[in-house]
């Protein structure tokens, strides 16, 4: 579609947007001038759904009125609370219900899955991951490798872009997997790289990993709620994601886990066990001998965290109400495409501002990462003063993530205006560069 850099055009796109009403279902923060801010940090912490407070309030009420009986009382029924998230989570990531469970937090889940799916043996012990992966993932892998008695430097192989490029080419990832061959135990990548915004071809990477006999897992922190995923069909072995970024489920919120159906009936897989993963039909017989439930549910440790899950349930309902990931993704491609367009129109030369996120919509989600070669921090602060809430990553990247549930095309137009105003200031005072 051809875009125009005018407020009328942006408002026209908003008027035609079938998801426009969802913005009112969230609390938007205010800018310094009292107007609604342009919130572009949904990749870091999604906004609060208006329904979240009542959802938590209902559980407070249950606790107040019924105390321990709340575990069994409708409508709360805390005993089975996590199960009420299963169907929506499965739809979200393209999975069968037996393949998903919601529990714990992201890095905890990554560790639990690595215990089962990183099983180095003999010559096959290496791990392939992104260079500059999110630090928590780096630390998790480093510690898991040490747990098995290996040296991280020798064991963890990092993918880096070709010289002069910012993102990875699928063919290079595949070639690296092939070259590692039977030394490769595990491929673990982010679904979308948190820094560059690059979305990886999860199906192709999974195929390549399986072809050499490796296990393939993904950290979907920046992909869940952002991309239309088909984890089951892509044959991914395992995955996990947080719920507080694109899934709007509150700071530190709970996390989702995917384990492919082919492992559903594998009680022999090594794992760390807890009572909530034990066969639910006999859980309360409190007997010795762990017997995991089939599927992802068999990786649970503890009884459900009701409060974060209450928020997550309300937030997931919004995704379904909007028509699921296909509908969100349709708007998202347009919204991010429009952001790319207004940034290109803002008049900053490539020596100052470079968009390092791939231009191909299939290789990105909501986020665009702006590499600002000069005065990046000043640009970030200039935008903040104008009510544009972006995210700053050292040493010189501004991340902007307009999200389809609550961002508007007018928001995106305002970002373009902010960057254009900065560009005009730079042009007026070139000596300061
Ligand atoms: C956000 C994010 C995390 C955060 O982990 P928590 O355990 O939720 O604190 C980890 N990994 C990636 C890739 C992330 O984007």
TrEMBL record:
InterPro entries: Kynureninase, PyrdxlP-dep_Trfase, PyrdxlP-dep_Trfase_major, PyrdxlP-dep_Trfase_small. The keyword Kinase does not apply. GO terms for biological process: anthranilate metabolic process; L-kynurenine catabolic process; L-tryptophan catabolic process to kynurenine; NAD+ biosynthetic process; quinolinate biosynthetic process. It is an enzyme of class 3 (hydrolase). Transmembrane segments: none annotated. It catalyses: L-kynurenine + H2O = anthranilate + L-alanine + H(+); 3-hydroxy-L-kynurenine + H2O = 3-hydroxyanthranilate + L-alanine + H(+). Pyridoxal 5'-phosphate binds at residues 106-107, 134-137, 219, 222, 244, 275, 303. SUPFAM superfamilies: PLP-dependent transferases (SSF53383). GO terms for cellular component: cytoplasm. One of its GO terms (molecular function) is pyridoxal phosphate binding. The modification N6-(pyridoxal phosphate)lysine is found at residue 245. It comes from the Bacteria. Its cofactor is pyridoxal 5'-phosphate. Its EC number is 3.7.1.3. Pathway: Amino-acid degradation; L-kynurenine degradation; L-alanine and anthranilate from L-kynurenine: step 1/1; Cofactor biosynthesis; NAD(+) biosynthesis; quinolinate from L-kynurenine: step 2/3. Keywords: Hydrolase, Pyridine nucleotide biosynthesis, Pyridoxal phosphate. Catalyzes the cleavage of L-kynurenine (L-Kyn) and L-3-hydroxykynurenine (L-3OHKyn) into anthranilic acid (AA) and 3-hydroxyanthranilic acid (3-OHAA), respectively. PANTHER family: KYNURENINASE. NCBIfam families: kynureninase. Homodimer. This is Kynureninase. It comes from Hymenobacter edaphi.
């Amino acid at each position: 579609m051809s875009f125009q850099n005018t407020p009328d055009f942006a408002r026209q796109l908003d008027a035609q947007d079938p998801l426009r009403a969802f913005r009112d279902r969230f609390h938007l923060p205010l800018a310094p001038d009292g107007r609604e801010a342009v919130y572009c940090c949904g990749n870091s912490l999604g906004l609060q759904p208006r329904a979240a407070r009542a959802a938590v309030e209902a559980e407070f009420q249950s606790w107040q009125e019924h105390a321990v009986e709340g575990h069994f009382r409708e409508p709360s029924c805390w005993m089975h609370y996590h199960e009420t998230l299963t169907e929506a989570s499965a739809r979200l990531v393209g999975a069968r219900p037996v393949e998903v469970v919601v529990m714990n937090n992201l890095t905890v889940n990554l560790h639990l899955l690595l215990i089962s799916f990183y099983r180095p043996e003999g010559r096959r012990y290496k791990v392939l991951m992104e260079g500059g992966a999110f630090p928590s993932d780096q630390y998790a892998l480093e510690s898991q490798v040490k747990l098995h008695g290996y040296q991280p430097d020798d064991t963890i192989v990092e993918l880096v872009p070709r010289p002069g490029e910012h993102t990875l080419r699928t063919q290079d990832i595949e070639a690296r997997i092939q070259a590692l061959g039977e030394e490769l135990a595990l491929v673990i990548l982010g679904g979308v790289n948190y820094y560059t915004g690059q979305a990886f071809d999860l199906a192709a990477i999974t195929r390549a990993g399986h072809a050499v006999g490796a296990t393939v897992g993904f950290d979907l922190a920046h992909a869940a709620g952002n991309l239309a995923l088909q984890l089951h069909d892509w044959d991914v072995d395992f995955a996990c994601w947080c719920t507080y970024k694109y899934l709007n489920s509150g700071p530190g919120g709970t996390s989702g886990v995917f384990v492919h159906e082919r492992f559903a009936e594998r009680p022999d897989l090594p794992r760390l066990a807890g009572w909530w993963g034990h066969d639910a039909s006999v859980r309360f017989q409190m007997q010795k001998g762990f017997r995991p439930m089939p599927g992802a549910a068999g990786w649970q440790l503890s009884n459900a965290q009701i409060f974060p899950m209450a928020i997550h349930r309300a937030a997931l309902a919004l995704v379904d109400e909007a028509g699921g990931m296909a509908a969100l993704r349709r708007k998202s491609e347009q919204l991010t495409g429009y952001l790319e367009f207004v940034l290109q129109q803002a008049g900053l030369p490539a020596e100052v501002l470079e968009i390092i996120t791939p231009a191909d919509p299939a290789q990105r989600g909501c986020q665009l990462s702006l590499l600002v070669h000069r005065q990046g921090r000043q640009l970030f602060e200039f935008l903040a003063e104008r009510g544009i809430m972006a995210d700053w990553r050292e040493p010189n990247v501004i991340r902007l993530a307009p999200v389809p549930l609550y961002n508007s095309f007018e928001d995106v137009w305002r970002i373009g205006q902010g960057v254009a105003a900065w560009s005009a200031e730079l042009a007026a005072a070139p000596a300061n560069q």
